[in-house]
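User: I'm new to structure prediction. If I give you an amino acid sequence, what do you actually give back? Let's try with this one:
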Amino acid sequence: MGDNMMWALVKEKPEAGLWMKRVPIPEVGPNDVKIKIHKTAICGTDVHIYQWNEWAQHTIPVGLTAGHEYVGEVVEVGPGVQGFKIGDLVSGEGHITCGKCRNCLEGHKENCKDAKGVGVNRNGAFAEYLVIPASNVWPCNPNIPEEMYAIFDPFGNATHTALSYDMLGEDVLITGAGPIGIMAAAIAKFSGARHVVITDLNQYRLDLAKKLGATRTVNLKEEKLTDVMKEIGMTEGFDVGLEMSGSPAGLSDMIHNMKHGGKIALLGLQGTETKVDLETVIFNGLNIRGIYGRKVWDTWYKMSTMVQAGLDISPIITHRFDIKDYQKGFDAMISGNSGKVVLDWSHIND
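Assistant: Good question. You get back a string of structure tokens that encode the predicted 3D arrangement of the chain. For your 350 residues, that looks like this:
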């Protein structure tokens, strides 16, 4: 359009909603890459921003462009950038790390103490163009369908969590059948787990989890986890637990159904009021690990190679809309009767 403006989904007012408006196209610094967005996916975080919950109110600046799950093509590179060229299909790591702290220097970027989130602490990918450092750009393999790359960020959360412990032959409990919990079930099964049991209250999502590889789904409104364990012949509790719900009841359920010496990875965000039965954690020798984001780039390699080795997570994408219908996409996510929702930006200027 020549006026150096672009369309973006912006948190324009401190209230529920996102607004499509014209904003300046971001500048490209010496080590940056400008990406023309093809497709984006809606994350639970985006829903929080949309609904303007308590977390969003004290985290998100009004005026921010949301979004951090995307795939697109390189349209400009800064003079200091090597390894990327115009036309490359790319996605990107959503945590922009400082590069200078001890963890960054040791190669543990996922634990950078000053990480800034794309679409959370800086303008995001729900826009025609996104500019990020070249060190955060992931080259897409042409053999993997483009829309899969739009969900590599949450797929990465699932991968980082599920692969934080050895899965081979283990009995795995996943609490919370949101899209990330469902993908984690698929990864656990793919990695050789024996029983992969996933709990939730939402039957739509439990059915989706079944489709992706969970061996037993448990609707806690209708069944008790202890009964299901008996039914599948488990006598000592779960070996590995992946807490994906953020629900205090989910975490408590998990802690009380692990084998002694069991291992738990926590991805679901618990509130400050969550009470944890530490007596059981201590006496049962449980191992609990917090998981944040993805490992850069270990998790990304694992995702790509698992997909190439036959892991099929494509059914997790249940809804596709044109970006002009973004409202329908958010409605689908908020209803709970959806997996991942992908928004197509290719006709934004039609």
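You can read the tokens as a compact description of the fold. Here is one thing that stands out. DSSP finds twelve helices and 17 strands in the chain.
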